[in-house]
Design goal:
With 282 residues, this protein is an alpha/beta fold. Helices cover 48% and strands 15% of the residues. The N and C termini lie close together (9 Å).
Length: 282
């Protein structure tokens, strides 16, 4: 297989009622972990890198490795800029050869979000690149996060946003939250079903780490076609390193990286099984 657009992957997922995993990678080990499990389980994948990671890693080198990995694997892969918030970041991803970009204007007033998303979509579509937009409050990392019906996106707003911006996928708030959850998440599946009926594009779930199998199943049946995983991959990497150091305090760096990669692979495999995307590679 070769690089494909995210639109191609998610349209099939929406039609056949499964979810594609959107896995954000942050080094070579996590990149290889995700692609190896995808080939093992014959799953389509979205490999992402968030714009906020730009200041922590050599993104030019990592992005080149992502392109190379996508060209080598035997499953379809979309390369995605996750949570792009600046024109400069989105243009970088386009120059790297990514097939999808996200403009996250969810923190902006709705008219400004719509205006800027529409402009990004115009540019990206002219180059054959898919666009993901975001609406609603998908939470934050701080202790004051509050998710309730007042900040969950409504169906009429979503329908108008999609019609005017022409995005290929829409990340929506329906009780999901970025980062680690505080307490039990409360997903508003009836609202999600309303959103799915109101728009003609696949819906995306951000903050997808550590839900129950039933939560994933019900979310997919209610309209979710991509589920983003970042937090749990990071935690799995950390836990793998801690376990290896506890067992072998004198472990060298290569052994630590091997342990980290195994932890990430186990985490990714668990999510792919829960998303019902096994053997769905097209």
């Amino acid at each position: 297989m070769s690089l494909v657009t995210m639109r191609e992957l998610l349209q099939d997922a929406r039609k056949r009622k499964y979810a594609v995993g959107g896995f954000n990678v942050f080094n070579f080990e996590t990149l290889n972990a995700v692609t190896e499990v995808a080939e093992e389980l014959k799953t389509p994948i979205v490999l992402g890198i968030p714009e906020r990671l730009f200041k922590f890693v050599d993104v030019d080198t990592l992005s080149a490795a992502m392109v190379r990995a996508a060209q080598k694997v035997v499953v379809p892969v979309a390369l995605h800029l996750d949570h792009g918030r600046s024109y400069e970041g989105i243009m970088k991803a386009i120059r790297w050869g990514f097939t999808s970009v996200m403009f996250d204007g969810s923190a902006l007033p709705l008219p400004e979000n719509l205006k800027r998303t529409k402009e990004i979509t115009r540019i990206a579509h002219s180059l054959g690149i898919s666009v993901e937009g975001e609406l609603g409050y998908v939470g934050c990392y701080g202790p004051k996060c509050d998710i309730n019906d007042e900040n969950i996106v409504s169906a009429d707003v979503a329908a108008d946003f999609v019609a005017n911006t022409r995005v290929d996928a829409l990340a929506v708030a329906f009780g999901n939250n970025h980062g680690a959850y505080r307490g039990s998440p409360k997903l508003n599946l009836s609202r999600l079903s309303e959103l799915n009926s109101a728009v003609n594009v696949p819906l995306v779930m951000h903050g997808g780490s550590r839900f129950s199998r039933d939560d994933y199943k019900n979310s997919i049946q209610s309209g979710i076609s991509k589920i983003n995983i970042t937090t749990d991959m990071s935690l799995a990497a950390t836990e793998g390193l801690k376990a290896e150091l506890a067992k072998t305090p004198a472990a060298n760096y290569i052994h630590l990286m091997t342990a980290m990669k195994k932890g990430v692979k186990d985490s990714v495999r668990k999510y792919m099984l829960a998303f019902d995307c096994i053997s769905k590679a097209i």
